Amino acid sequence: MGRPVGADNNNKFQAHPMSPLALRFAEAVRTLIGDGPVKIRLVQAFAANLADLADVEFPPALRRDFADLQVALNRVAPVGSESRVRASVQKMSPDEAGSHAATIVKLYVELLNTLERAEPLKVVSTPKKPPQYLTNRN
Q1: Are the CB atoms for 78 and 86 separated by under 8 Å?
Q2: Where along the chain do its domains lie?
Q3: Residue 118 CB partners (closer than 8 Å, separation 6+)
């Protein structure tokens, strides 16, 4: 039996190339859906893949959501050698951490949707008079 269309050697499907930003979110989502407590997965996903991003790297419609996520995951000052992200997530309830994990997934889906959208259709004006080769029928 042959390989599915679009599958690479690792049996992963890739319908179209993704932007570097979407690839980073894909890795974060991959971490989020792994095993373990949501707080640990959230710290790993954000710290390893998204912490160094700036909101200006996002499409304008997604900037506020990402900026809000950054604020939430950096609001607690670290103690000792722990990171700011780890300290912030440790102070969260599991539901709050799950909500921030869901925001990462939502941003990833919206990034993919912006990649798939074609440029909007443009209005093209037609000439008022059809060309002569169309009107001269003999």
Answers
A1: yes
A2: 20-116
A3: none
Q: How many helices (H) and strands (E) does the chain have?
A: 6, 0
16-49 residue pLDDT tens = 567 899 999 999 999 999 999 999 999 999 999 9
CA distance 119 to 116: 10
Q: 62 — phi, psi (to 5°)?
A: -105, -5
Residues 5, 91: contact at Cβ < 8 Å?
A: no
Q: Which two tokens stand for residue 36?
A: 């373990």
CA distance 13 to 4: 8
Q: Which residues pair with 13 in a beta bridge?
A: 7
DSSP letters for 56-84? GGS-HHHHHHHHHHHHHTT-S---TT--H
Q: Is 128 exposed, middle or buried (0-12, 13-18, 19+ CB in 10 A)?
A: exposed
pTM attached to this predicted model: 0.73
